[in-house]
Amino acid sequence: LYLTRNRWSYLFLISSYVYGRLPSSFSSDLESGLSSSHFDLSTNIETGDSRQGLDQRGKVEVQSIMKSREVGFDEARRIYTERTFAINNIGADGRPRDPKFVSFS
């Protein structure tokens, strides 16, 4: 199979998935459209923030949401955050869904 893979491997390629290297700094995140007026990365760039940029897994998920649902960055970020909340048993309003949770105001 390995020797003949050039003859049959094209049958297994998924055309909707194309690998692309994601940005690894705030400036490249900004150039990729992963910023908005509500989530502004320009301050990080201006102050010379030396961190690597946004979370790689989060970037992949947000870009996937933006592409599949055809929404902007802010909406995709909201959807991603709500999904993450649901996985961690947190309500959309940010409060834990744990029945033993006690809050003092």
Describe the structure.
- 42% of the residues lie in helices and 0% in strands.
- It is mainly α and 105 residues long.
- Helix 4 packs across helix 5 (73-87).
- It is extended, with a radius of gyration of 19 Å.
- The model has no long low-confidence stretch (mean pLDDT 79).
List segments where confidence is low: pLDDT < 50 over at least 5 consecutive residues: none
Query: Structural class of the helices, strands and pairings?
Result: mainly alpha
Could you tell me the number of beta strands?
A: 0
How many helical stretches? 5
Helices and strands, in order, run as HHHHH
- Averaged pLDDT, please? 79
Distance between the termini: 66 Å
Q: Radius of gyration from the CA trace?
A: 19 Å
- Proportion in helices: 40-55%
Beta-strand content estimate:
under 5%
Most strands sheet: none
Q: What is the molecular shape? A: extended
Short key terms for the protein model shown above:
mainly alpha, extended, 105 residues, 5 helices, 0% strand
